[in-house]
Write a structure and sequence with these properties.
Elements (H helix, E strand, L loop, with lengths): L4 H5 L16 H15 L4 E2 L13 H17 L4 H9 L9 H12 L8 E5 H13 L5 E7 L3 H9 L3 E8 L2 E2 L1 H13 L3 E7 L13 H14 L2 E5 L15 H4 L5 E6 L10 E5 L3 E3 L5 E3 H10 L7 H13 L4 H4 L1 H21 L2 H7 L2 E2 L7 E5 L6 H11 L1 E2 L1 E2 L12 E5 L5 H23 L1
Helix pairs in contact: 2-16, 3-12, 6-7, 6-11, 8-9, 14-17, 16-17
């Protein structure tokens, strides 16, 4: 007689097809696979993560930043200890408690002049994206244009919210404004409403591409002409390798077309999970009531994270106070470090793949002016299967570029990040990568 006890007591299972469609999205599977590979091969040198180098972090810094912030409140602003205690221990202002310091820093570093009330402090830049997308995209036909290849955080958030996405092909200098215009018009012809364009104008993730100043000016003209908003994400702008920093789109924005998304993950410390969005656009409600878009984002935030951790904000606030709200100057050491890393990565690729050899293999790469990333073209499919081979047999990790494309592409490309490794590990990592590429290319040609 069959034992039915186990089946009788087993709780009912949920059908995956009855859960949200984003849970079967290949992007989510790709990121999970990458995390799994990293965990399975802990001894492999990894060019995969875009996280900052942690060799300069000291745990003692956290308490010092907290003290700097509380001193700022008590002695700089004249707050009582009771008021300071409430600021740190209680639920706080939904839009954040360090908005004034952030606004001052943006003015000093980026020449972005906005009221502190236009700044919403978020739980990382990912929440800034989610709040912004939820507020702006109200109709089924509203469409998000994204530079392709694109950072998966924003495309993933759009899919969670069932927002239509249209890719805009990226060139060597980032998204071509004329390609953006073509995408806007094609979207309208297809019955969609092009609502906003998301892009990383400086040293983009994943490609490392940067827009010229002329292209930025042209894009702002198109945005005004076509009633298009721009979501500018700029986590890497400080980290210039050659030339000088270019102005942010927001600093050039005269018609409030740009929402500026920011984070302290790369310029301060990622563990704080503090980001922000500058949303100074005016919103007109019933009866002519006027508010800032930042105030409307606050309503959404109150229903998601309620507020951003006061302790995390205080740590970042103390760092800003210590740096006199001049993070660009405070990051001078990090800028030099990442410049050395990117120079080392480019130099080692050149050493292992001199001109004649890379021509014979069909290998090439771009040379970004800064940031953390570059892209290598290879003569074989750089997919998850190839990544596992690279990790298992050659001890080196990278990121398949195909995961960043919405419209196909990137199958023969891999992304290398130079931020989390030191120069010695980069040198050894490229040596391992070269062995893998040579072997894989030989296998492909057989």
């Amino acid at each position: 007689m069959a034992d039915t006890t186990a089946s009788a007591t087993r709780p009912p299972a949920l059908a995956l097809e009855e859960l949200h469609a984003s849970l079967t999205d290949p992007v989510l599977d790709a990121m999970n696979f990458l995390n799994e590979v990293v965990a399975r091969f802990p001894d492999a040198l990894s060019f995969a993560p875009g996280r900052p180098f942690e060799g300069t972090f000291e745990t003692e810094d956290l308490s010092r930043y907290l003290r700097a912030y509380t001193d700022h409140l008590e002695h700089g602003l004249g707050w009582s200890r009771d008021r300071v205690r409430t600021q740190l221990f209680q639920y706080g202002r939904t839009n954040g408690i360090i908005h004034e310091l952030i606004a001052r820093t943006l003015a000093n570093d980026e020449r972005i002049e906005v009221s502190p009330e236009a700044v919403v402090v978020t739980t990382g830049c990912q929440e800034a994206m989610l709040l912004t997308l939820r507020a702006l995209f109200a109709r089924p036909e509203d469409t998000l244009l994204v530079s392709s290849p694109c950072y998966v955080g924003v495309t993933g958030a759009a899919r969670l919210l069932d927002i239509a996405i249209r890719p805009v092909p990226e060139g060597a200098d980032g998204p071509d404004p004329d390609a953006v215009l073509a995408a806007v018009r094609h979207t309208r012809r297809s019955g969609g409403r092009p609502r906003a364009l998301y892009l990383v104008p400086d040293f983009a993730n994943p490609s490392g591409a940067s827009m010229t100043v002329a292209a930025r000016e042209r894009l702002l003209e198109i945005a005004a002409q076509e009633d298009l908003l721009i979501l500018e994400d700029d986590p890497y702008g400080f980290f210039v390798r050659t030339g000088s920093a270019r102005p942010t789109l927001k600093s050039m924005d005269r018609e409030r077309r740009v929402l500026h998304l920011g984070s302290f993950a790369k310029t301060a410390l990622p563990g704080a999970r503090v980001g922000y969005v500058v949303a100074d656009q005016e919103v007109i409600g019933p009866g002519g009531r006027r508010s800032l878009l930042a105030d409307e984002l606050s309503k959404i935030k109150s229903m998601t994270t309620v507020n951003t951790s006061a302790i995390s904000q205080a740590v970042i606030g103390g760092l800003l106070v210590e740096s006199d709200c001049r993070l660009r100057e405070a990051n001078a050491g990090a800028v030099a470090y990442y410049r050395t890393n990117l120079d080392t990565l480019l130099g080692e690729l050149e050493r292992h793949f001199p001109a004649e050899r890379r021509k014979a293999l069909g290998v090439s790469w771009n040379e970004p002016d800064g940031g953390f990333f570059l892209v290598v073209d290879v003569p074989f499919r750089a997919d998850h299967k190839a990544l596992e081979d690279s990790a298992r047999n050659y001890g080196v990790l990278w990121t398949p570029m195909g995961d960043f494309y919405l419209d196909g592409g990137g199958d023969h490309q891999l992304r290398l990040s130079c931020s989390a490794l030191g120069p010695e590990d980069i040198t050894e990592g490229v040596r391992r990568l070269a062995r893998f590429v040579e072997a894989r290319a030989a296998r492909t040609s057989e």
